[in-house]
From TrEMBL:
Residues in the signal sequence: 1-23
Location of region: Disordered: 150-171
Record has Transmembrane as a keyword: no
Biased composition (Low complexity): 153-171
Coiled-coil residues: none
InterPro entries: DUF2271
TM annotation in the entry: none
Protein name: DUF2271 domain-containing protein
Length: 171
């Protein structure tokens, strides 16, 4: 006697199993303002997540990674808050997070489950810090809760080295 079992899963039930992990993301927009200064250098920028009681998680670092003998890394410590929170423990170039400096303008990126990992429920801060040679440094913080409510977003604006920074959180 042969028994067979057939499991039928509706689309909604299946989406409930795989949907949240696949859809988990943060869509981020960072504006680097055009500055009228005598000597302009593109800023080094770090983007990371912090949660009380947990190690910081670097999502992206924009710096001069193509310099001879990896010389661009010596100025990463000028992105001070990030360097203290997470940067000094990384080896550069860091696979998946290292990118070139960006010109003035609006830059969009999305961080999915691969970059975020599995975020535990709680209160987080998404931080964006910029530091520029012969310029200043600035830190913008976007607090948010995880898991996000539908349509959850956050925004803030810098005043010198960073312009508008906005994020949409999806789970």
């Amino acid at each position: 006697m042969q028994l067979s079992t057939r499991i039928v899963m509706t689309g909604a039930a299946f989406a409930g199993l795989v949907g949240p992990a696949a859809a988990q993301s943060i869509d981020l927009t960072v504006t680097i303002p055009r500055l009228s200064v005598a000597e302009y250098h593109r800023p080094y920028v770090a983007i990371w997540l912090e949660k009380a009681g947990a190690p910081a998680k670097t999502l992206a670092v924009w710096y001069d990674h193509d310099m001879k003998d990896n010389e661009g890394t010596k100025w990463l410590r000028d992105v001070r808050q990030w360097w203290r929170a997470s940067g000094r423990g990384l080896t550069f170039p860091a696979d998946g997070i290292t990118g070139a400096t960006k010109a003035p303008g609006t830059h969009k990126m999305s961080f999915g489950a691969d970059a975020l990992g599995k975020l535990e429920a709680g209160d987080y801060t998404l931080l964006v810090e910029a530091a520029r040679e012969v310029g200043g440094r600035e830190l913008v913080k976007l607090p948010f809760s995880w898991p996000p409510k539908p349509g959850q977003a956050a925004s803030a604006a810098g005043s010198e080295e960073l312009g508008a920074v906005s994020a949409t959180f999806k789970r």
